[in-house]
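Milestone M4 deliverable, item 7.
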Amino acid sequence: MKPSRQPPPAARSPATEDRFLGLRISPINQRRLHNFTANRRAFWSLWVFLALFVLALAAEFIANDKPLLVRFDGEFYVPVFASYPETAFGGEFETEASYRDPFVVDLIEEKGWIVWPPIPFSYKTINYSLSQPAPSPPDSVNWLGTDDQGRDVAARVIYGFRISVLFGLILTGFSSLFGIAAGAAQGYFGGLLDLFFQRFMEIWSSMPTLYLLIIMASIITPGFWTLLILLLLFSWMALVGVVRAEFLRARNLDYVRAARALGQPDRVIMFKHVLPNAMVATVTFMPFILNGSITTLTSLDFLGFGLPPGSPSLGELLQQGKSNLQAPWLGFTAFFSIAIMLSLLVFIGEGVRDAFDPRKTLGPMSKKDAGPAEAKAPEPETKAAAE
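Output delivered:
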């Protein structure tokens, strides 16, 4: 009897190598990426949210009371990047030119031209040319109307969206960093350290955050960073319980004992061996923590304990809608802006949760979902050639 000859496995060319955005990814991460893209609602919600966030980052080029480009007397000026005195355009004052002043506009158009952004208003620009008292309804100039101070609502929504998302991302990032570190230390070392931290968290979480914000607002004017630091003092506890439970479970597993037997230091075991496994449960919570951070800022702005007065804020716009029921465009604009943003984040969070679900990540993959290498695996011979 001659032994049967098995065909060699199909070699994978570099073109079929598992890569994402030019980076090689492991098979399990490829499965997670496939599970996320298979959730069409989460996939398209991510793209829509990224598109809105990129547009909000370029808010100065979309909504601004300064021109994008000025051509005057044969020279080019970029007011959106630099400040120019009125005398540069033939004016009388050495102060920065007010490009919404009809006198300055006439001076420029006599010897050149002006390119305005799509919305010629910044978040703090007051439109003094309204045809009716503020708040004025939407028209061809103010697409979403104006608020009770004559400021363009569309511009304030764009800038407010950017501040809300950036605030939520920074707060989520730092709170997750501190929460993961605290939960890892508690779960890995245990003992008195774990007992002390648990009692401290019970006391700390019972502190009235809103009252502290009211006291702080009476002492100093809350700003972006002061508000961020104060909320960070309490938001870091969101992930401690999840990370602690994962480290408590993993510290007695065989691979951790083997790493200790090999003489690996605790920091290497914690952050190189245990933490990647704990991040699976942690990552699924992050979109929802981001959602909660944005909601917290919006609520504080609505109550008047958030960002300083005049700052572009969706919560402040919502409060204006409550105070001016005769101007429904204020409330509807704020409501739909917040609802769309939070809904997109919830859909993305659901997709991330499903992508990291072990039942879907480690389960069998159907031929329809499998790639070319998995779908066309070589079949072993069932009959041996007899001599």
